[in-house]
Each structure stands twice: as structure tokens, then as C-alpha cells.
Amino acid sequence: xxxxxxxxxxxxxxxxxxxxxxxxxxxxxxxxxxxxxxxxxxxxxxxxxxxxxxxxxxxxxxxxxxxxxxxxxxxxxxxxxxxxxxxxxxxxxxxxxxxxxxxxxxxxxxxxxxxxxxxxxxxxxxxxxxxxxxxxxxxxxxxxxxxxxxxxxxxxxxxxxxxxxxxxxxxxxxxxxxxxxxxxxxxxxxxxxxxxxxxxxxxxx
Length: 205
Known about the structure:
This protein is mainly alpha-helical.
């Protein structure tokens, strides 16, 4: 009952309330991002969702468009400004994902949506992480984030899929709030990894 109906209802109610209550914050952040980083204010990127259906994930922009003499974008670590780092460390860049949750692309809790280019490299078992909607935060994110290796990360994702319940979601929300308040990690820790998954899996073959 919870997995099939209640979880989605809670996602709609919480995300809608969050968008309404945080609308002044959205406005302030949009203005600051426009002034400090330029436009577009919202960063949009394709990610695989439930059943590997592709959707556009939304975030506040955290990098500028600095380029080299050839007109090529500089590496991410160079384009990530102090302001952008602050957005990420406080997880404020993730707020637009509430729109993804309201639309049904994502859930509050679930495996983080990774890059589309990783899809060919999953094992059949790992593909089950897409049996549920991806989340704003998840079991892997509250148990180590970037400190986890890929195998551990996916083990937590699959554990969540198999044990999904209201109690588990409530526990993850509590742990996430604690991490954010302590600034001990971002909600999107799975997006920034030491080694890209495709390179990791290629190296294993």
C-alpha cells in the first residue's frame, strides 16, 4: 500500500508545500545565481528515472561558463565558484528538484539519479535500482556518499528498493536533515564521485 499509493501522495503534498513555503528562497537564489553566475539560472540535465525513463533533472546553476582560448569549457573544478560551492554544501542547489518530485519524475527518497551514459554499464541486478523513482536523497547518501565505492553504493540502492517502507523513508529523512544541518554532506553526493562509473566498469573488464 505504501509503496504503490501512499509514497506518491506524500511526495505530492510535501513537494507542493515545499515549493510554496520556499518560494521567497527560490526568488532570492534565482537573482543571486543570475548576478554571480549568469544565465540560465536553472541547470537542466537528462537522467534516468523509474524504469529507466529519461527525464530532465533541475538544479540551480553552480558553475560559470569560463572557457579557454579555444572556446572550450574549462574543467568543472575550475568553473565551480565559491558561491557555487556554497550552494552545493548547503544543498540549496537541489531545491528545484522539488519540481521534479511534484511532476512525478522523482521521489523525496530513493536512489540518486545518475548519468544517462552509465546505463549500458549496469549489471542486471543493478538495473533494479530503477524499479522505483529516484530520490532527492537516499540510503546511500546518508551512509557515506562519496566515501562509498560503486559496489557499496549500489548495494545500498538495492537494499532500499527491496526494503522500501514508510519507516525506512522516515529514518532516511531524519538522517538527511541531520547531515544538512551539520553541513556534513550534500543531498546529491552521488553526483560527484572520485571516478565516473563508466570508467570504473570499463577498467574492471
